[in-house]
Amino acid sequence: MNETLKVLKERRSIRKYKKDQITDEQLNLILEAGTYAPTGMGQQSPLMVVVQDEEIIKELSKMNAEVMGTDTNTDPFYGAPTVVVVFADRGCIPTYVEDGSLVMGNIMNAAHAVGVDSCWIHRAKEVFESERGQELLKKWGIEGDYVGIGHCILGYRDCEYPEAKERKLYS
């Protein structure tokens, strides 16, 4: 089977991670794949911010849990040691959400291809619309009309690999 199709068929979302950090080589390959995602009219408006600082990850996790409306001791990032936050420029092109979503897909598929597990965690939009979220954007040097598209958590799973769900037929 073609290696690309194999990756697409086998990748699963993982919801329990070891504390071990992914390698810089793996991270760079994953980010490179994100930069090659298709974007409307080739505008390439999405940005990726890598967070590996444990305290910032805990803060983002707490903010995400608050948006979700759950106990802030809940970890929506499942202990993953790396979070890649994808943003897209709302003012650049009307397809900014789709563009950022394609970046997220490339990141997750590339992660699987290089032996890293992943999961898309929602609520980035709401997290970065908050006052603290806006402060983080400024701290990271992100200016403009950027919207959070998603958090892609990365790491090595600390659980059994999930079985594939039955797929719907297509015609």
From TrEMBL:
<comment type="similarity">
    <text>Belongs to the nitroreductase family.</text>
</comment>
<keyword id="KW-0560">Oxidoreductase</keyword>
<feature type="domain" description="Nitroreductase">
    <location>
        <begin position="8"/>
        <end position="156"/>
    </location>
</feature>
<dbReference type="InterPro" id="IPR029479">
    <property type="entry name" value="Nitroreductase"/>
</dbReference>
<dbReference type="Pfam" id="PF00881">
    <property type="entry name" value="Nitroreductase"/>
</dbReference>
<protein>
    <recommendedName>
        <fullName>Nitroreductase domain-containing protein</fullName>
    </recommendedName>
</protein>
<dbReference type="InterPro" id="IPR000415">
    <property type="entry name" value="Nitroreductase-like"/>
</dbReference>
